[in-house]
Amino acid sequence: MSDSRWPRLLRSCVVFTCSVLWGLPVAAAPLTGFTVVEGHVVDAAGAAVPIRGVNHFGFNTDILVPQFLWTMGWKEQLAQIKALGFNAVRLPIAPATLHVLTPVDQFSYIEPRRNADLLGKTSLQVLDLWMAEADRLGLYVLIDMHSVSTKRQYPSWFVLDSADWNLTWNGLPYTQANWVSDLAFVAARYVTNAHFMGIDLYNEPNGAVRWFTGDATHPDPTYYWKTAAETAGLAVLAANPSLLVFVEGINGNYDGVENPDVPMNWGEDLQPHAYQPLAIPAAKLVLAPHTYGPDVYVKSSFLAGNFPANLAADWNTLFGQFFPAYAVVPGEWGGRYGFGGNDRDVTWQNAFVDYLLSKGMRDSFYWCYTPNSGDTGGILDDNLDVRQDKMALLRRLWGGSAPAGTGGSTPASASSSSASAGAGGALDPRLLLVAGILPLLRRRRAH
């Protein structure tokens, strides 16, 4: 796909920037595409979009393509995902996915008969094909910027420490400006894809990352997730107004306000949003926590005498409290579910589904499709047979549909709960100037 959209975006930005600088009237841009109504996603026509999702990783790893193409065909995988009842895929990527020009078949063996159309292609070219086929099949896609490195999960969305430059795709620092630019590029590249529903800005920010101010031991604003997410979210919406912005939690703000005694996974803690809310229109915002059971990390709550009855209160504190004023869509959850893992994992996963059903939060993305995620396994087992027990669990979650759309109208919370919402929840274009997007859009990208 060409980048012809970038000049149009630049011209639009120039118009409203001149309006801001010289005091001319500025009209708020109306919301388009996918929006959130009463905690649920609806499409441009106002029809409900229940998210029965699964994660399919690989583009974010050193092979830069979906997993198991050494045995399976990439189109066969997508067809099977749809046949199983999933209607959405969360697709992790990395900056290398967009920038590395080496053909993907030089990184790993790709079964040539099933994947002949991928041979000699770059990762970005494969992603183009994958996105087009998902769209053809009617599968919604959430693109997830999983890490700045294909080698491991990096705690922040930038790499400034020279000791870690070996982790980036080009051996150079990766700045927040690079991250925002890459997200905006992806948003614009698939602007005509009707089933491209959103971008998950960054996977499981942790370590020195804080939501915002409050922790005197970590006062560096470079690591404030709230500010970074707002900047990136506005850039995504400027590049592709049809998308939703998915924002994960952190692993503790330690500000004396949130409850620090609740055990947390990376990406699970959204508590500070209650008193330091994201300046992203609620009608375009999806809170996307990650939560895992004892197969991934044994929290103290899993060892309590009242397990699993104690879990619902924790989930409510960490993220459930925001529904339905906001959409809350877990972006990752799962585990081995009784095969080679912790004997409490089945209980945990069952309890989580019970909790989601009790809240009316049926939308989520299960981790993951292929079996080679070490601590969770997949929907497919090691023989590539479908785990029917996991599918039965998911079908119980999916059992009811999301509430019907209300004609695409904006919920009241969308126009009042966010500093970036203009009249009726529309996106105030003046905030794009504040977010520093103009310098970003001046650089055309060639791929």
Structure description:
- It contains twelve helices and ten strands.
- The N terminus and C terminus are likely disordered.
- An eight-stranded parallel β-sheet has the order 9-8-7-6-5-4-3-10. Strands 1-2 form a two-stranded antiparallel ribbon.
- The longest helix is centred in the N-terminal third of the chain and has 18 residues.
- Strand 1 and strand 2 form a beta hairpin.
- The radius of gyration is 21 Å and the shape is globular.
- It is of the alpha/beta class and 447 residues long.
Any chance you could write out the topology, listing elements then pairs?
Layout: H1 5-22, E1 35-37, E2 40-42, E3 52-55, H2 74-83, E4 88-93, H3 95-99, H4 123-137, E5 140-145, H5 176-189, E6 196-200, H6 225-239, E7 244-247, E8 285-287, H7 311-318, E9 327-328, H8 345-359, E10 364-366, H9 388-398, H10 412-416, H11 430-434, H12 437-441
Parallel strand pairs: 3-4, 3-10, 4-5, 5-6, 6-7, 7-8, 8-9
Antiparallel strand pairs: 1-2
Helix pairs in contact: 2-4, 5-6, 8-9
Mean pLDDT: 87
Oligomer: single chain
Tell me the number of helical segments per DSSP (H or I, 4 or more residues long).
12
Strand composition percent = 5-15%
Keywords:
447 residues; alpha/beta; eight-stranded parallel beta sheet; disordered N terminus; disordered C terminus
Care to give the gist of this entry?
With 447 residues, this protein is an alpha/beta fold. The protein has twelve helices and ten strands. Helix 6 links the parallel strand 6 and strand 7.
